[in-house]
Write a structure and sequence with these properties.
This protein folds into two domains: about 170 residues, no CATH class; about 160 residues, Nucleotidyltransferase, domain 5 (2-Layer Sandwich). α1 crosses α2, α1 crosses α4 and α6 packs across α9. The strands form three sheets. It has a seven-stranded antiparallel beta sheet with strand order 2-6-7-1-5-4-3. A five-stranded mixed beta sheet has the order 10-9-8-11-12. It is globular, with a radius of gyration of 24 Å. It has eleven helices and 14 strands. With about 400 residues, it is of the alpha+beta class. The two termini are about 15 Å apart. The structure holds zinc ion (ZN). The site of zinc ion (ZN) has 8 residues, from loops. The site of zinc ion has 8 residues, from loops.
Length: about 400
């Protein structure tokens, strides 16, 4: 699955209709959850049957495309089944009991194969269900001409702080060719550097959040000074959430680029199987850890590993930083000790570098026996890295006019 995203350009009235569709989708999802809570033994099929009941009972809910209603019910079911799964596996901590969704800035509605129509030149999309949002211009860098219409399995309308986006989920397995490099690498993620690899190469941490923290705080302060329910409050809230959106995009972009780089230049990438969720519980470091976006980095590593046919191995993080990479002795050290000094063999090395070598070694040991631990559960459909350089809106427009070169 690939996901291409484009911004929707339309009028205020059209956006209002999209809002209605999004609200209805949320209503269907929440109703399904309630139906499940109030009736015992309700499963997937009961929920999708319940959609028709809802549409009959509430005429405005019936305006939403029937397959989009089904998709909302499926979402509800996904939340429920995840909860069941967590209970069955006796996952530590919270089990994630399904909750009702509230109205938020972000929201989405998912269409399947009906309720929308792409124009002949695939530059505009028309929403044709009961809400009749009409046609929107598509702003994006991806070329939809490259794929068959029937490959588009889902179309999602996503509302964010800075506008409405349309995501196309395209059924297509992405496979890219690359030449074997004969190189293997171990990666140790950290806070001083984003990561250190087993060759001693380091990548700095961009700390997007820290950089924007001042602005974010100022915007948050401004928001708190506005009057409840006023127009200025809405504006201030929007400004703040746009800034947050920007930080999260920067972070994602960075993670993607680093992961792509690591995968393209190696035949095997090893990293620690970190439980970021537990580490974030450390109050002092949580913000820096979340800001470092390791989970996203790992997710993209595994994704690109699949695309490029590179082995990605997650190794258990026990003793990776304590063991001496030269002689194997365990050298205890605290978090603040940045260099590894071995009393047994006298080996001196940067702490993270030492750990990265250990990670690589562990990975090479396990690969021969058990196969890769990772890349089992990555069929989530977020695909496509951002282009290397951002072209301006005008440039993009020019590019869009020339149809010849598929940009993917
Ligand atoms: Zn040693």
């Amino acid at each position: 699955m690939l996901v291409f995203e484009a911004k929707l350009e339309g009028t205020k009235q059209q956006y209002d209709r999209l809002d209605e569709a999004i609200r209805t989708a949320r209503f269907v999802r929440n109703s399904c959850i309630r139906y499940w809570m109030e009736n015992q033994g309700v499963g997937r099929y009961e929920l999708s049957a319940y959609c028709a009941v809802l549409a009959k009972e509430f005429p405005w809910a019936g305006q939403l495309n029937s397959m989009a209603r089904q998709a909302s019910a499926e979402r509800a079911w996904r939340a429920i089944s995840r909860f069941y799964d967590n209970c069955k596996k006796a996952k530590p901590g919270k089990k994630g009991f399904p909750r009702f969704k509230k109205h938020q800035t972000h929201g989405s509605v998912e269409y399947k194969t009906t309720g929308w129509k792409l124009s002949q030149d695939r530059r505009t999309i028309d929403f044709t269900d009961g809400f009749a949002a009409g046609s929107f211009k598509l702003w994006g860098t991806r070329n939809l001409h490259f794929y068959q219409l029937k490959q588009i399995k889902r179309v999602r309308v996503v509302r964010r702080a800075d506008g409405y986006y349309c995501q196309f989920c395209i059924e297509c397995e992405r496979r890219e060719q690359r030449e074997l490099t004969g190189k293997t690498v171990g990666i140790d993620v950290g806070l001083t550097h984003f990561y250190t690899d087993s060759n001693g190469h380091t990548v700095d941490n961009p700390r997007h959040l820290r950089k924007s923290e001042k602005t974010l705080k100022r915007l948050a302060r401004k928001l708190s000074r506005t009057q409840l329910g006023s127009k200025n409050r809405i504006k201030a809230r929007n400004r703040l959430s746009r800034k947050h959106l920007k930080v999260s995009r920067q972070r994602k972009d960075f993670a993607i680029k680093q992961a792509l780089c690591a995968v393209q230049s190696n035949d095997l990438v090893a990293y620690e199987d970190l439980q970021v969720r537990n580490m974030v519980k450390n109050k002092k470091l949580s913000k820096s850890i979340s800001d470092a976006a390791w989970s996203a980095f790992r997710w993209w590593l595994e994704y690109f590993g699949k695309v490029f046919g590179v082995a990605t191995v997650a190794v258990s993080p026990h003793y990776t930083s304590q063991r001496c990479s030269n002689c194997g002795a365990i050298v205890k050290k605290s978090l603040s000790q940045r260099t590894h000094r071995c009393p047994d063999c006298g080996h001196v090395q940067d702490r993270d570098w030492n750990a990265a070598i250990n990670i690589l070694e562990l990975a090479l040991r396990t690969v021969g026996h058990t196969g890769t631990n990772a890349s089992g559960d990555i069929d989530l459909c977020i695909g496509g890295e951002t282009p290397q350089c951002k072209s301006s809106r005008r440039k993009r427009k020019l590019q869009e006019q020339s149809l010849e070169s598929p940009s993917f």
